[in-house]
Design brief:
Helix content: 40-55%
Distance between the termini: 57 Å
Number of strands: 0
């Protein structure tokens, strides 16, 4: 498994989109000797960050909830912990 796929951040809300975006970002890195150029053969002579790298970055952002929103969701979820307990057993009608 690729290194970038091992640790999905807890703030990711769309795992498939995030994984696809990280795959694209990993495939479109700056050239080691020419950091202003993309190493991907499909982006030959294109400036880095190339359009796929920019799109991958935007997709990663879209797939990730802002930290404050994640904390707010956790607070709301904790408010409902233990809320749905049966109050008594209902006899079945025969």
């Amino acid at each position: 498994m690729a290194r970038h796929r091992r640790a999905v951040p807890h703030t990711v809300t769309d795992v498939l989109l995030w994984l696809f975006a990280t795959d694209v970002a990993a495939a479109h890195q700056p050239h080691p000797h020419k950091p202003d150029r993309c190493t991907n053969l499909r982006c030959t002579a294109q400036a880095y960050p190339c359009p796929p790298a920019r799109d991958a970055h935007r997709a990663q952002q879209a797939a990730t909830a802002p930290h404050a929103r994640v904390q707010a969701r956790a607070r709301v979820a904790s408010a409902f912990t233990g809320w749905f307990h049966p109050s008594h057993a209902h006899p079945h009608a025969a």
